[in-house]
Amino acid sequence: MTRRPTIIDVAKAAGVSKSTVSLVLQASPLVRAATREAVRQAMADLGYVYNRSAANLRSPNVGLIGLVINDLGNPFFTDFATAAQQAFAEQGFATVIANSDENPAIQARVVASMIEHGLSGLVIAPTDSGAEPTFAALRRAGIPTLQVLHKADPDTETFPFASFDYATSGAEATRHLIAQGAHKIAFVGGLKDHAITNERMSGYAAAMIAAGLPRLALPGRPNRAFGREAATMLMMGKRSFEAAVCFNDLVALGVMAGYARAGRKPGSEFRLVGCDGIAECSDGWPQLSTQHCDVGQFARDTAAALLGWLQHGIRPVPERRAAVSLIARASSRG
Amino acid sequence: MTRRPTIIDVAKAAGVSKSTVSLVLQASPLVRAATREAVRQAMADLGYVYNRSAANLRSPNVGLIGLVINDLGNPFFTDFATAAQQAFAEQGFATVIANSDENPAIQARVVASMIEHGLSGLVIAPTDSGAEPTFAALRRAGIPTLQVLHKADPDTETFPFASFDYATSGAEATRHLIAQGAHKIAFVGGLKDHAITNERMSGYAAAMIAAGLPRLALPGRPNRAFGREAATMLMMGKRSFEAAVCFNDLVALGVMAGYARAGRKPGSEFRLVGCDGIAECSDGWPQLSTQHCDVGQFARDTAAALLGWLQHGIRPVPERRAAVSLIARASSRG
DNA sequence: CTGAAAGCGCTTACAG
DNA sequence: CTGAAAGCGCTTACAG
């Protein structure tokens, strides 16, 4: 395999100096149109490929954004990643996505690798625990970083935080179920003692206390499989439940499947509300009520905040909470 | 923000030359243990961050793998990405993931960006059409690239191809439905004239012809929403269908939801087989029969093939087909 | 508008 | 085992 052509080769072919080629590469207005055309032609002829490593060495303005997600198996996060990537692309920034899979060691490794490659900025949905080394590295490297959904580092001046107002929506969902006549209402799913679980559960707890109703939490992994298991427990015994507020839509869909399996259709006899607002809420049957988060808008706002920081030095507000809206569908109205 | 320390700073602090620091960075056995320790300590004290751009400039051995996926919304692809990333990480390679979302322009842009950053190798699940510029750029850059699932470039000597044997499994699924007594069997989902659609449909067609049964295809987007729509059509009219082979599991799950909505439970009266083998096949109810692809193993095999190429110069076989196994569950057995 | 020169932070032979 | 020197492919002032 032959050596890749450099700007010197291009300069020679186009009969200009390499500075001029560099200027063309940066779309500088200083270069005459005819010259630019000649350089472009030479690049095409030679099959020139820009070497960003070399460029970064001189001016570390990479135009590269990192996106670290903790659960790529959840449609909520893939929707977030897709929308954010698109928003960055519109401003000429490339996005690299990595999945930590809730594993702090993987998270530390991918972030370290991203730092070495020289990121312009980073958006991270951190693992619930063990994120300290990752944020220490980010702090050392001075990479503008936004934390979303889970506040792993309390220093939101350095690492601005954005999430949804899950507390309010959880209370609203719970009151909705109570209004439908349910009294025995469980909170299902979410890993025990995880910050996001506590946050999403807090609204449920407040609403139940306000109504003088007993609370019960069934913590578990935030996926369908756990939801199915949980359904068995919800149906068990004499004190069978009438409704559930679920940690997320995946859990709710799993609970729904568990009930279906037992020949019971969620709706009038068992009412269910999820959280996130993934597409499958309305793609399944019965359709799932949910605490709907506009993830597309959230991703665009997050991207805009990071870009404003990078491009204009406008530091994002330390803490932002997007509104969540309750969408009541067949699963909670019978 | 102060200047990031370089190996020269580290060398000064540790009282050695910068060559020695470089050797330590590369874990070279040439450096005495005590010296290495001193250098490590100096790096920790200074908060040194390795600058990979500078390193790449001298030796373009980046240890970075690109992964370009055409539909991050499909669990099949997120499973693939997660498993591949893990396999690469075990060999010390970092993975960056990008989502082309079936958009050739986005695909070209993310691949161009990856090439500029200097990839060691690339795995791409190409868009169905418009991938020519992307492969032309890859060819020019000389990046070892594996195509998976869709053969966008016929030159498999340059771009080895790996996929599943969908033709065989489609025929098997169809014969299974016929054996259950179904005669009016449709093929549902998959974008019309797309290569993957034709491939997955070919087994269905062959089996139906062999059995002397009439064929009917209902092409459409490979997601749940289309499956739901399709269900309406399948139930319509007098010639209502008895079974369907679906393009993938998402479509099948959508069809299932569509039937459920009409108060009809798939199983004995309507039999359904999906394709891919995503987790939701067994997380829902009734459980979905599927043409199961071992995506984890496929991802590991693909990673191993690329790593063998990069590390030992062993060029992968031009074309590889992984076996697909039929898993018959409640959705097709009643 | 264009060119000559210095330098970004590393790695790589080459001496010692 | 360790050090001095050259050079990777760009960008950035600085002249002209």
Structure description:
Chain A is built from 14 helices and twelve strands. The longest helix of chain A has 18 residues. A six-stranded parallel sheet of chain A has the order 2-1-3-4-5-11, with helices on both faces. In chain A, strands 7-6-8-9-10-12 form a six-stranded mixed sheet, sandwiched between helices. In chain A, helix 1 packs across helix 3. The first copy, chain A, has three domains: 40 residues, no CATH class; 106 residues, Response regulator (Rossmann fold), CATH 3.40.50; 137 residues, 3-Layer(aba) Sandwich (Rossmann fold). The mean pLDDT of chain A is 93. Chain A has 334 residues and is an alpha/beta fold. Chains A and B meet through helix 4, helix 5, strand 2, helix 6 and helix 7 of A and helix 4, helix 5, strand 2, helix 6 and helix 7 of B. The structure holds a DNA duplex (16 and 16 nucleotides).
Task: Write the SSE topology.
The structure is a homodimer of 334-residue chains.
Chain A: H1 7-14, H2 18-25, H3 33-46, H4 52-58, E1 64-69, H5 75-90, E2 94-99, H6 104-117, E3 121-124, H7 132-141, E4 145-148, E5 161-164, H8 166-179, E6 185-188, H9 195-210, E7 217-218, H10 224-235, E8 243-246, H11 249-261, E9 271-276, H12 280-283, E10 289-293, H13 295-312, E11 319-322, E12 324-327, H14 330-333
Parallel strand pairs in A: 1-2, 1-3, 3-4, 4-5, 5-11, 6-7, 6-8, 8-9, 9-10
Antiparallel strand pairs in A: 10-12
Helix pairs in contact in A: 1-2, 1-3, 5-13, 6-7, 8-9, 10-11
Chain A binds a DNA duplex (16 and 16 nucleotides) through residues 6-8, 16-23, 25-26, 30-32, 35, 50-60.
